[in-house]
């Protein structure tokens, strides 16, 4: 089976944003029925509205707002935020070209981001009433964190405790990488991603370059831009502990989302839940949790939640204060599929476009750890592409392949 990729007509929306803007790589839209992007808007978002509706005893006003949102995203055109909303002006600017047009004709990245903003609006997350700040995805995140799979993953750490540091480092890097498959948004319609071969599934492996950038004993700061909470954030935190323990970094800044986003994206509350889960676990995991708890207290681990992490924009458009933060660290590690799309630009790139070219704008060395869950991919070698195409299947989007890409 050859997978159907998203339609990307050069309709004028396309080539105005993202790294290497002006190159001939159209922005991904969602208006090709059967494409991955179309499926997210046509099926995943409506299913998500239903899941959220079922998970909370919302009142009539919220149900009506969810009904209206469902109708709008499936049959209507993109409506702006009400002028009374705190971020009305910001979204009026970001959405100027798309309001009044079908959702499916807006850039895929923009449409998804705005959908999550509107969903939060519908359930009164930003209101002044009792539902203010109630994370609509919290029940799903909590259930995952409590699950037996996490117990098993934490127990497995005991076996790694005495492994040589290099072997442990590699295993923990891969755990963090493949942890990205655990994405609750991805599972709304796809089910559990088929198990990938946790080594053979790598389509690019710049792991050696990553470790070269993190020599033991370096008194540097590393930034980690988190993706999902729960089963992804736990191995991210364990990797962070390893970096600190073995002096690959003196300090880690963990960037999370300031509000609920893409279902399971991590916020500060999720970091706290994961740290507690680790600290309360027996064995090696408990020790890691304790060290990380202390690292928060002594400033070796710091959590930040910049609003730009929920912006519908590629990282090339990052604000100056965030640019300065990334410029000040020895390496920025970006986790997950959405961060990858924002890093290289959500476009149908020629898959052999060098990763280094598209990330040249990024302020400092950058590493992407990502399982493949959308159409965007760059930096492949011809022989890898040939093998993937020969294998057939939805290799770009099924979450069964992964990559470690690094630009020094
Ligand atoms: O960033 P993550 O959690 O790895 O992935 C986010 C994701 O599930 O969301 C999009 C669909 O909604 C896809 O691009 C991608 O697969």
UniProtKB/TrEMBL annotation:
The keyword Heme does not apply. Residues 41-383 form the Damage-control phosphatase ARMT1-like metal-binding domain. Residues 1-10 have a biased composition (Basic and acidic residues). Residues 1-25 are annotated as: Disordered. Transmembrane segments: none annotated. It catalyses: beta-D-fructose 6-phosphate = dihydroxyacetone + D-glyceraldehyde 3-phosphate; beta-D-fructose 1-phosphate + H2O = D-fructose + phosphate. Its cofactor is Mn(2+). The keyword Manganese applies. Keywords: Hydrolase, Manganese, Metal-binding. InterPro entries: ARMT-1-like_metal-bd_sf, ARMT1, ARMT1-like_metal-bd. SUPFAM superfamilies: AF1104-like (SSF111321). Belongs to the damage-control phosphatase family. Sugar phosphate phosphatase III subfamily. This is Damage-control phosphatase ARMT1 family protein. It comes from Streptomyces noboritoensis. The lineage of its organism: Bacteria, Bacillati, Actinomycetota, Actinomycetes, Kitasatosporales.
